[in-house]
Amino acid sequence: MKKDLSGQLIFSPSDLIGYLASPFASWMDRYALENPGAVAPDEETEDGQLIAQTGAQHERAVLDEFKSSGANLVEISRTDPSVAGTTTISAINTKTPIIYQAFLEHEPFAGFADFLLLDETGRYQVWDTKLARSPKPYYAIQLCCYSELLAAVTGATMPEKFGLILGTKDRVEFRIEDFIHYYRRIKTNFLTMQNRFTGNFADRPEPFPRADHGRWTSHAEKFFQDTDHLVQVAGITVGQIKKLKKGGIAKVAQLSAASGASIRKLSTDSLEKLVAQARLQCQTRTDRIGNPDAPPRYEVLPCTGANGEPVGLAALPPDHPADVFFDMEGYPLVAGGLEYLFGVCTRKEQPDSFEFIDWWAHNREEEQLAFEGFVDWVFNRWQRNPDMHIYHYAPYEVSAVRRLSTRHDTRQDEVDALLRNEVFVDLFQIVRHGLRLGENSYSLKT
Length: 446
What we know:
about 450 residues
């Protein structure tokens, strides 16, 4: 969002996506616009910059593909919106088959659409480039807005369809009538919030738990801390937060003292687990008032399941000198994603001595070689040491190994044998079922 020279608010279709994800972030955008320098948004992360750069490269690649096809195309400059608007109308009137960066405006919305494509009936459709490998529901909101602007600019009825060119280069079309009512409800709610904007910081909406607050994430987190919000309780769900609030429990401290309470549609077992988690977090928080480096409080959970089976810490296999500790890293911003690093750590014979082994990939062919190298190495190690295990944290590694064996149609028998014999051990599940920690997350990065 921005203001024109007359001070009139102008919103972009992307503002609707931001509102849909987080009304709090949308409100903060408006507050920052009205009060320059009063609040500082978060700096863009390296990941965010990389995503933006890769998205721009994808858009440019699509444009270059259109150009190389020999199609008649007009490229609109974004330098001056008024000139861009005039050029866009001229290109529409002359039925230019492809218009890149068409400027569409109808108060209070305006923006540059990636592409306007002339269909076989002589009408334009809005097409957008997206880096994602599959359509996301919120894309429809942005494209419905552009389609509505296109109809207003041309004086025609709404286009029947809009389209996406995905990061996979796949092209998908959608019928506007399937989304238009949802879009109009979102737009109405967005404009209602903007019209009711007071500028009073205390009036900002409460951040949604687990939402993407974009460049206002740190402000949302501060809100949660300042209000002792329940979202800070490790493992709690949005549904449980709603039920607890309806039951009069809105803060972590309140939850920590709620043992024995009755909350509608929340089982006693679930409530008591949340109470115990909140209690440990409150105790840890108190400890860290005097000592910021104080370790978290913890409890060891029962090691026997309902049927007598070992669970939690008791489910850890016996230690073995050949055990492997495994981690992977992936790069999601290419079609299909790229698993670029397979890393393992093993123990040497000398005390407190470790060996690190890695396999790297920079493209799809190297990914296959790295995958095969890792599987061959670990499978042969297991054949020599059938009591060893491969330890990892969370399910990503196993899912990726399965996916790669299918993608490259290789080492499927070896992967299947490792999985059937339960050689992989997910330490996250061991920790989650074996310990209760006084932290707001059980992530390794906590």
